[in-house]
């Protein structure tokens, strides 16, 4: 690969570290480090939340799914996520901003704990454990993508593991230094880089395919490639039915938004909750366009592979953007720089999620487990030091997890289901149902988290109607657990209900 491409990538990575150094000088307290002092603007809130959400899944996983199996699964997944994005901003964003400020909560576990008063520490422990359990594989998926990327670009001269270590080191550096503001600001920049990468790849991809008509003809020549009720099977050259239940479970990806800690933290951090309407519009439009373009790249990629311009095994379909970028770089210095921007876009999609996850996980350990649970008294400086050390430790574990290559889509889908089922129902009921009790929330969290494992590794293997995305059944069962256990246990303290009523009154006043 061209030297100009490597220089472009190096400049991008260096600029991310520079942002971390800059904000390290502005981070003075744990509130600054974990939540940016609640000073985010509406545009940064929108773009950083979506950049941290999309991850490498947007530029690697989603195009890869569309390339290998047509638009069916990819489209229903994207539709579910678009709906989830909108509803999360519409119903959860403002309310959790107001509620978390009212009870002075700066992390999701702390929100759960303080929401239920003095008796809520059990939830702090449980939610912190959930964050650690599911963020490690989620973060590992990001490191996986970085390793795969650089290994492919170097033609194998840089090993997958070495590339992963280098990428992880950059992400950890600016996250450790700058905390939440560094993560949010870099995520904002990264969303712009991701957008440029998507647009450039589409343009060159269509050219390599032989024009738009060639793209359409190729898609139409493959059985069910453009269908929304059946998917293309590249192993047999035939098609597979995509039934109603499967479509419903794929749409359930959208439920995951209600439980994503790194997205919920963006809502809690905005300076003016009234500006969340603008954030919602920006985020929804960006998500719809970016996912639509990502799926289109998969469709274009199929034509490029089938006409022989790019040689790619369908088992490695998630590499399609990487291969198109490498092809672009063969045309000269200017195009090599363009390739560097595209690769930086892939890195951006990965880094924007990994940094947020590392920060959320570290805050759970240092602030919620060591502070709230074990009662460790520590200064602001000591607390931030512990958080920074925790980030490094979690990153090391994630690197170990991702030491062998795997599918980005598969890893992300499991972690997404874990958070969506364990936290999503608890967040919704905590915000909207006053009768929710500590034990109801705990039952919902445990049921949702456990059912993700049980359904995926036991029940789904039965096949048939049970072979659906684990998030849907786990989410539903968690909701049932919250309602049943809350009604069977003593109602919340008067002070807890009074706070709930105060939040309701404030929400009506700001409506």
List the helices and strands and how they pair.
Layout: H1 3-24, H2 30-35, H3 42-69, H4 71-102, H5 108-115, H6 121-153, H7 160-209, H8 212-221, E1 230-233, E2 238-241, H9 244-251, H10 261-269, H11 276-306, H12 320-328, H13 333-373, H14 380-401, H15 408-432, H16 438-459, H17 471-488, H18 494-510
Antiparallel strand pairs: 1-2
Helix pairs in contact: 1-7, 1-13, 3-4, 3-7, 3-10, 3-11, 3-13, 4-10, 4-11, 4-18, 5-6, 6-7, 6-13, 6-14, 6-15, 6-16, 7-11, 7-13, 7-14, 8-11, 12-13, 13-14, 15-16, 15-17, 16-17
Structure in words:
With 511 residues, the protein is mainly α. The chain has one domain (3-510): Sodium/glucose cotransporter. The protein is built from 18 helices and two strands. The chain has helices spanning 3-24, 30-35, 42-69, 71-102, 108-115, 121-153, 160-209, 212-221, 244-251, 261-269, 276-306, 320-328, 333-373, 380-401, 408-432, 438-459, 471-488, 494-510, and strands spanning 230-233, 238-241. It has a two-stranded antiparallel sheet. The chain is globular, with a radius of gyration of 22 Å. It starts with a helix and ends with a helix. The model has no long low-confidence stretch (mean pLDDT 83).
């Amino acid at each position: 690969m061209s030297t100009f491409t490597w220089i472009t990538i190096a400049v991008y990575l260096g600029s991310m570290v520079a942002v971390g150094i800059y904000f390290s000088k502005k981070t003075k307290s744990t509130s600054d480090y974990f939540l940016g002092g609640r000073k985010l603007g509406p545009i940064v809130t929108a773009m950083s939340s979506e950049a941290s959400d999309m991850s490498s899944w947007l530029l690697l996983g989603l195009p890869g799914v569309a390339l290998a199996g047509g638009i069916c699964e990819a489209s229903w997944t994207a539709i579910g996520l678009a709906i989830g994005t909108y509803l999360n901003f519409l119903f959860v964003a403002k309310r959790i901003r107001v509620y978390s400020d009212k009870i002075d909560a700066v992390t999701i576990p702390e929100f759960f704990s303080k929401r239920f008063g003095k008796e809520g520490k059990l939830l702090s422990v449980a939610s912190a454990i959930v964050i650690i359990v599911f963020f490690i594989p989620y973060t590992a998926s990001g490191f996986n993508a970085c390793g795969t990327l650089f290994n492919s670009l170097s033609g194998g001269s840089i090993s997958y593991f070495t590339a992963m270590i280098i990428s992880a080191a950059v992400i950890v550096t600016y996250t450790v230094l700058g905390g939440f503001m560094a993560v949010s600001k870099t995520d904002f920049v990264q969303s712009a880089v991701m957008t440029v990468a998507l647009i450039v790849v589409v343009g060159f991809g269509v050219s390599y395919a032989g024009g738009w008509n060639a793209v359409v003809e190729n898609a139409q020549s493959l059985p069910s490639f453009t269908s929304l009720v059946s998917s293309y099977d590249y192993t047999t050259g035939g098609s597979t039915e995509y039934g109603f239940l499967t479509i419903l479970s794929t749409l359930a990806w959208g439920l995951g938004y209600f439980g994503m800690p790194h997205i919920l933290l963006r809502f809690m951090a905005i300076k003016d909750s009234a500006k969340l309407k603008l954030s919602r519009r920006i985020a929804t439009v960006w998500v719809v366009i970016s996912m639509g373009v990502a799926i289109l790249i998969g469709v274009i990629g199929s034509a490029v592979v089938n006409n022989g311009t790019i040689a790619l095994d369908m088992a490695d379909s998630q590499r399609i953007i990487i291969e198109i970028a490498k092809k672009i770089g063969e045309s000269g210095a200017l195009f090599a720089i363009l390739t560097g921007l595209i690769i930086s876009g892939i890195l951006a999609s990965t880094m924007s999620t990994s940094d947020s996850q590392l920060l959320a996980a570290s805050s759970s350990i240092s602030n919620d487990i060591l502070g709230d649970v074990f009662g460790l008294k520590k200064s602001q400086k000591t607390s931030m030091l512990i958080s920074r050390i925790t980030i490094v430790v979690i990153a090391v574990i994630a690197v170990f997890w991702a030491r062998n290559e795997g599918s980005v889509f598969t890893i992300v889908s499991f972690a997404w289901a874990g958070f969506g089922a364990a936290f999503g129902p608890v967040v919704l009921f905590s915000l909207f149902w006053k009768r929710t009790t500590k034990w109801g929330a705990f039952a919902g969290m445990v049921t949702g988290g456990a059912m993700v494992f049980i359904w995926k590794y036991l029940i789904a293997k039965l096949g048939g109607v049970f072979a659906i995305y684990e998030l849907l059944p786990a989410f539903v069962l968690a909701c049932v657990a919250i309602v049943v256990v809350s009604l069977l246990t003593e109602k919340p303290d008067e002070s807890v209900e009074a706070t709930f009523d105060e939040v309701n009154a404030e929400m009506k006043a700001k409506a």
